[in-house]
Amino acid sequence: MTTDTTTQGNAPGATTPGRTVLDARGVTMRFGGLTAVRGVDLTVNSGEIVGLIGPNGAGKTTFFNCLTGLYTPTEGEVRYQGQLLPPKSFKVTAAGIARTFQNIRLFANMTVLENVLVGRHTRTKEGFWSAVLRGPGFHRAEKASRARAMELLDFVGLAAKADHLARNLPYGEQRKLEIARALASEPGLLLLDEPTAGMNPQETRATEELVFAIRDQGIAVLVIEHDMRFIFNLCDRVAVLVQGEKLVEGDSATVQGDDRVVAAYLGEPLDNDPGAAEAAEVEAAEAHAGTHAGTPADPGTPADPDPAAGQQNKETDR
Ligand SMILES: Nc1ncnc2c1ncn2[C@@H]1O[C@H](COP(=O)(O)OP(=O)(O)OP(=O)(O)O)[C@@H](O)[C@H]1O
């Protein structure tokens, strides 16, 4: 993988250091009676890698979809570099936000290079007639696009496979290709939805390096991931979504040390947990049965032939 950012300089879409790139305020998304995202505020600044974590169904992907114009939030607004984002995904890409998907979405029967070229369409100025007539302007633009696409393939370590069909790439390389295609739109902010899903530890480590290299090119990154080691190694800041709401936000140490986050992942007991009273009743009944076991009325039936086994069962059931 070529991730030597010292020689590559900033990406064309790079943003001004220290500025707020993404500003989402009060984002709410309802599907009928279900509120998948509720009043979420989140900012991403230039030069930052921000993580978005939360248990399954917490609303992470829905929030991404609200940021990228796939969904129009029921309430709230999203600004990119100070401008309100249009509610159309191709316009959001043109504005400077690119994304990858949880389920890889490549053109399987196109080559690796062609997939990246498709990602460049928002940056290609040549219009319809130029493409049809294939004049000198078109050829110049096409050459420049190919050169940039090859540069990106080199950056993610896939230059040698430019002519391979996307469908023939191993899974980890397909994920890299998705990232190269997203970078082809020259974004200032890259959203990654579970970039290491299905990867082995070596591939995950390489993806971590790749994301650092992308950040070093001046592109801010917002990443959803279930792999906590990956998130806490990588991110400057982490926000935790639980049941559609932002529960905690802070640096890795703050989030890791917050008991509410652990509780949310383990499944926090409800207040006045109704199960607790029931469990106490069962325990009392068991204790009562134990007291009467082995009495003359029931001489041959020990209540608990192996108390240690009983304890084991309780722990398994918990
Ligand atoms: N298009 C939709 N229509 C109706 N409900 C939806 C839709 N998309 C998501 N949901 C619901 O919204 C909630 C949040 O889902 P979402 O996929 O955003 O969660 P997530 O945090 O990304 O989960 P995971 O980590 O499993 O990918 C879930 O209850 C889901 O079933």
Automatic annotation (TrEMBL):
> What parts of the sequence cross the membrane?
none
Entry-linked Pfam families: ABC_tran
Sorted alphabetically, the Gene Ontology cellular component annotations on this record are:
plasma membrane
Query: From the UniProt record, which GO molecular function terms apply?
Result: ATP binding; ATP hydrolysis activity; L-isoleucine transmembrane transporter activity; L-phenylalanine transmembrane transporter activity; L-valine transmembrane transporter activity
Which GO terms are recorded in the biological process aspect for this UniProt protein?
D-alanine transmembrane transport; L-alanine transport; L-isoleucine import across plasma membrane; L-valine import across plasma membrane
Q: Which Gene3D superfamilies match?
A: P-loop containing nucleotide triphosphate hydrolases
Q: Which residues form a coiled coil?
A: none
Q: Compositional bias of type Low complexity: which residue ranges?
A: 287-310
Q: Which keywords are on file for this protein? A: ATP-binding, Nucleotide-binding, Transport
Residue span of region Disordered: 1-20, 269-318
Mark out the compositionally biased spans (Polar residues). 1-10
**What InterPro entries does this protein map onto?**
AAA+_ATPase, ABC_AA/LPS_Transport, ABC_transporter-like_ATP-bd, P-loop_NTPase
This chain's protein is named ABC transporter ATP-binding protein
